[in-house]
Amino acid sequence: MDVGLVDAGPLVALLNRGDSHHEACRLAAQKLQRPLLTIWPAFTEAMYLLGTSHLAQDALWQQVESEALLIMPLEQKDCVRMRFLMRKYRDQPMDLADAGLICLAERERIGRIFTLNRKHFSIYRAKGIGRLDVIP
């Protein structure tokens, strides 16, 4: 498989063996090319969700330090697009991390996302790409 974007859900599930999605995410991650790409809002969300375990948070930092996970920048011009997307999909609702991941997909021409949010990412459309391939 090609490089893909990663949302907060799989980052948490991969580090928490008790998570109901751990095994599916572990198997999916084995098939994905490294590095995985994310953005600060998704990384922040994952850190928050892992907040009860400093060991899990440290393991997530290790993924960044080893460059298995790259945190891609969001640019000033992405703010306009993210605002547009959040308005367009307000009935879902689309959060900041989802809008940023769609912007990154559009900018980097990435058509695959590793997320547990299949419901929303099956609806979202990236300009120039269309529907993203949702994994797992």
Describe the structure.
There is one protein chain. This protein is mainly alpha-helical and 136 residues long. The chain has a single domain, classed as 5'-nuclease (Rossmann fold). It has 7 helices and 5 strands; from the N terminus they run E-H-H-E-H-H-E-H-H-E-H-E.
The largest pleated sheet is described as: 3 strands, parallel
What is the fold named in CATH at topology level?
Answer: Rossmann fold
Task: Give the total of beta strands.
Answer: 5
What is the CATH architecture descriptor?
A: 3-Layer(aba) Sandwich
Oligomer: single chain
What order do the SSEs take from the amino end to the carboxyl end, as H and E?
EHHEHHEHHEHE
Give the full name of the CATH homologous superfamily. Answer: 5'-nuclease
Helix vs. strand class: mainly alpha
Lateral strand order in the biggest sheet: 1-4-5
- Residue runs with pLDDT of under 50 for 5 or more positions: none
Report the helical percentage. 40-55%
Rg (C-alpha, Å): 14 Å
At the first level of CATH, the class is: Alpha Beta
Distance between the termini: 12 Å
Task: Give average pLDDT, whole number.
Answer: 94
Which helices and strands occur, and which strands form pairs?
Layout: E1 5-6, H1 8-15, H2 22-31, E2 36-39, H3 40-49, H4 54-65, E3 69-72, H5 76-88, H6 96-108, E4 112-114, H7 118-121, E5 133-135
Helix pairs in contact: 1-2, 1-3, 3-6, 5-6
Give structural attributes.
12% strand; 136 residues; Rossmann fold; mainly alpha; 7 helices; two-stranded parallel ribbon
Question: What is this entry, summarized?
Answer:
The chain is mainly alpha-helical and 136 residues long. It has helices at residues 8-15, 22-31, 40-49, 54-65, 76-88, 96-108, 118-121, and strands at 5-6, 36-39, 69-72, 112-114, 133-135.
